[in-house]
Fold these 3 entries.
Entry 1:
Amino acid sequence: MLRLAKALTEAGFDAPVRDNIRWNIWLKLWGNVCFNPISVLTGATLDRIVGEPALRALCKTMMFETRAVNEALGVQIPLDMMERRLAAAGSVVGHKMSMLQDLERGRSLEIDALVTAVQELGCLTGVPTPVVDAVLALVQERGRAAGLYAPLGISC
């Protein structure tokens, strides 16, 4: 693994080796669970999502729900990482999230990997995710209406 990371770094890629990859995956998911579906539903860029108070509050609620799920699975991420994640996202002016880019290009939407997964893990751990569930229902319908999403058919 270290040889691969070294080779990638020498080729100009960012290739850190992580001690606890689950921690990093969940931290990234904190943003993806909210930023991606909100972008599809609103057409907003990342800085707009984070800069608009109501959308930022929606993101934070979804992040708190996601945090409760990852904690139920034994992954502890300090709460201050939420504000750091939001601040970093807000600094990326004009960026369209990948799911919005997929919608605009007529490509299938990665709803299940980024949002449904949190809902399902919430169900498995007994952690309620009502706002994630509501946003998920909306983005699934948006994807179906565009012909870019077919649900897996799994539910709690």
Entry 2:
Amino acid sequence: MIFADVLCVPGDPIRHVYFPIDSFISLVAPVDGYAGLEVGMVGNEGMFGITLTLGVDVSPLHALVQGSGSALRMSAASFRREVDDSPALQRQLNLYLYVLMSQFAQTAACTRFHVVETRLARWLLMTQDRAQSDVFHLTHAFLGHMLGVRRVGVTKAATSLQQQALISYSRGDITILDRSGLEKACCECYLTDRRTYDRVLG
């Protein structure tokens, strides 16, 4: 998968499901028809197209490749057949669906109650977890989707984290310099997400 590729847009039928290996996918909710807010992120812990397990074959969200890399792809029809034939697979996918719903809910609360800088720290940690690297690329546009703020808000938050020597940020290239410091700078939402993943998915 290639950075910024669009896998699906709201209202489109889901023709393929994707299982990231060393890539990750941004799930963006449309706002007012043109802007968007990232509400979830999918890495090698999950998949895109989970709504097919509910019998819903239309995407409610934009699915964008946020981190390039490899992924497994399967047609929606083949995926549904595999799920129908395997109760064990269905149970595991139900657990992942629960975790993803929890992530959506946590993001909604985080966006409403926490300041931009702590939210940026949370998303950078989530991105690092899925990128499995201290270095990754995030444009201002993606950061704006992640935080639901304009460019000036992104710049201010990123500059603050950089001045604290937690990250290095230049032309969209981000390097995590101090993960433990970034964990202290983020809100409780990051640890809440991690605990949910660990408890439900092990």
Entry 3:
Amino acid sequence: MQATSKKITPKARRRKTRSDLVHLRSLPSIEPATKIGQVAWAWPEIEAALTAGMKLKEVWEAASRDGIEMSYAQFRLCVSRLRRRRKPFLSVPEQPPQQTSVESAPPTPPSSDPFRNLREQREKAKLSRFEYDPSAISENLF
């Protein structure tokens, strides 16, 4: 008996195309299993209802009738988390309008004084309460 060695050639790999991603394409149409996923899946409708002026409790009741089963507290938590996710993280502050007046000069930057706040607090305290100063007594009072 002779051992015949078969040459095993690996299958030629074929590049996947977008049409091969059938399962991934079907995922958006399937309701997620997690509760936060269900709320995120229905978020466009939930957000539209809230924007239209519906109360959150009314939206929760409608979502419950549509099969999204969770307590109102859980629903509120999911909605607040989704709102935070959707907010832009950094908003660019608007530039103040340019002053066209020749008379107004740009403000000078404040000098760096780490104890300025402390001094201001002490000045306010002096003005707001009575402090006895024994050195201010004049000897001519007697």
